[in-house]
Amino acid sequence: MNRRIFMKRLAAASAFSAAASMFPGIIFAEEQNSNVPDGPISWKKSPCRFCGVGCGLLIGLANGKAVAVKGDPKSPVNKGLCCVKGYHSVMSLYGEDRLTKPLVRKNGRMVETSMEEALDLVADKMKETIAKYGKDSVSLYGSGQWTIPDGYVASKLMKGGIGTNNLEANARLCMASAVTGFISSFGMDEPMGCYDDIDHANVFVLWGNNMAEMHPVLFSRILDNRLKRGNVKVIDLATRTTRTSVAADRSILFKPQGDLAIANAICYEIIQNGWVNRKFVESHCTFKQGKSNIGYGLEDKFKFKDEAKNISFEEFKHFLNDYKPENVEDLTGVSAKDIKYLASLFGDPNKKVMSLWCMGANQHTRGTWINNLIYNIHLLTGKISEPGNGPFSLTGQPSACGTVREVGTLTHKLPHGVVANEKDRKMAAEIWQVPVENIPAKPSYHTVEMFRALDRGDIRFMWIQVTNPLVTMPKLNRYKAATEKEDRFIVVSDVYPTPTTEIADVILPSAMWIEREGMYGNSERRTQHFEQMLEPPGEAMSDTWQLIEVGRRLGYEKLFPWSQETHIEEIWKEYTRFHKGKKHGMASYEVLKDQPGVQWPFVDGKETKWRFNGKYDPACKDGGFDFYGKPEGKAWIWVRPYEAPPESPDNDFPFWLNTGRVLEHWHTGSMTRRVPVLHRAVPHSYVELNPDDATKLNIRTGDKVKLVSRRGEIVLPASVNQRAQPTRGQVFVPFFDEALLINQLTLDAFCPISKQPDYKKCAVRVEKV
């Protein structure tokens, strides 16, 4: 072995050692080391393919394949570190069952065809459906895994070309409440802070977020901060005990839905103890009251519109009288002492506090409200928009922020603004060079309602890209049946067979990640470019180019004038016209190619790390705080009451069901289950039970357990005292396993404002098999 090979293998071994020390219990496969080739390796930068943290990677390339991964030390996100998924990310390219040829359903069977024929068929079917049922009978359902160019082309095709707002992305299922929370409180989407806050804060309050498993690299930064500074506290506020709870300084468990009352009780304590930053509140905040008793979206064609009435500080204070800590102990399961402790952390003027949350807050029938309430706490204390002080909404998917929230791949959105705003429609029409009348002024179907419309027959054609709704949709049995109805045509673009490809009439093989060029946008407003490093297998094609090819076949050649060699650069230059200016300026294509990611607003060659604070944000007036998303430049503090969930345990279904992810697998597992070491680590799903409940039901780890809800049933192996522990009366099931579809049991209730479903709370019965 020569010195060069030795050094390469040493680097690989050190990477695995770092990851193993970060995640004790994970055994790294020898194949990771043994597969490092003896020849030269070239290294190119890329963001990670998986979660919304947006870690920077260096991809090792040799002999036309990706053979190694290491963290990019130049990336300010992860500073050279990766999680277990990131270190094994390139292996997800090489599963044996990779889709490489288009497949078309003929006489009930899927048969191989050419990409040209498949794209012709997709376009012809769209034309036929529009001619027969109208333009709102076709739909496109994408993902926060779409690249930014994917999403931009999707929006231009559907809204500028076809003229329908039937465009949604699966980020509706994970980030919509964060969006509506930001907009209703601040008038603009996306966090005002950044990951640098982690290095400055003294207190971290995690609102229902198992950060050690879901965002492990960021959690490692928190632990590193605590280790170095010593005066740092981590508070795990959750409904189950997890690895995050064990690492936290204090674990506070609450009853499902109790977070609403806890947040209001914290606000009550802040006011009663004189901890309000009065100067900040009087200068930069206004108080609002919205509707209550707003429903749960369970019925088809559910309609809701919020209101915002002005109220005084005294009226807000009076509202909080119902939320004295002693009054909400039974409701929340949290002692008054613990609530007062939490309030004291926020109220201490000498402590910098960062709140972090993800699905626990967002997948909530009052998801917008709990986002508003977390902001209320930070606004009352003035702990916002400065280093170490801020509320920070974490993201699940690699480009849910960049492709869905920034580009606007939702029914009500445009790349800058909303379809209901005439000025925004005119901007889009001018840039796209289409008549403004092409762009409908009214939103059509959000994700749940889009699949309901497919069930009803209002939608007859659906094109699904980069997502797996036949695993992820709540109340899954209804929506699976909808896709199988006669006179429904389903196109699926993906890289591996999934339960969603099983119901497709056409399957288009997609190029994956570094097999094509693109950009992702992460949680901290960081846009990250990656170049094409590999040739896609067979006839696989990027999702961007699939959309362009079909758009041209539909007669919209003028909308897509780009060449295949330069289309990503040309798309980026056109897209960034929507975001010019100090409030949302984006870096140029050339800068993105050179840097390991650039945060927006990018103004005069400089990133804006903290928005709404004139010390850091050039868009602010007069150098002070300026919440410029609102017309008056003030943030809104909302009255948002506690309301019970739509379904709670009872005699027939006495347990709460909570669903989520695990460290080793990402979302539905269609990629990570093709990585041998990750699959071996967690080969199947399971149901976690509280040890007391397990003893009462005579259930031990490995026993078969049947879960039954009002919508379905499933049999899984039990897990007791292993990875995590639910509270009594609660069970937890991860959703990555396509052979054990837990969403057959979940409820399709959603937040009426964000339209995001609640996957964390429904009632089930537990039976030993």
TrEMBL record:
Catalytic subunit of the nitrate reductase complex NapAB. Receives electrons from NapB and catalyzes the reduction of nitrate to nitrite. It comes from Splendidivirga corallicola. Its EC number is 1.9.6.1. The keyword Methyltransferase does not apply. The keyword RNA-binding does not apply. Residues 41-97 form the 4Fe-4S Mo/W bis-MGD-type domain. This is Nitrate reductase. It is found in: Secreted. It catalyses: 2 Fe(II)-[cytochrome] + nitrate + 2 H(+) = 2 Fe(III)-[cytochrome] + nitrite + H2O. Its cofactor is Mo-bis(molybdopterin guanine dinucleotide); [4Fe-4S] cluster. Belongs to the prokaryotic molybdopterin-containing oxidoreductase family. NasA/NapA/NarB subfamily. CDD domains: MopB_CT_Nitrate-R-NapA-like, MopB_Nitrate-R-NapA-like. The gene is napA. PANTHER family: PERIPLASMIC NITRATE REDUCTASE, RESPIRATORY NITRATE REDUCTASE. [4Fe-4S] cluster binds at residues 48, 51, 55, 83. SUPFAM superfamilies: ADC-like, Formate dehydrogenase/DMSO reductase, domains 1-3.
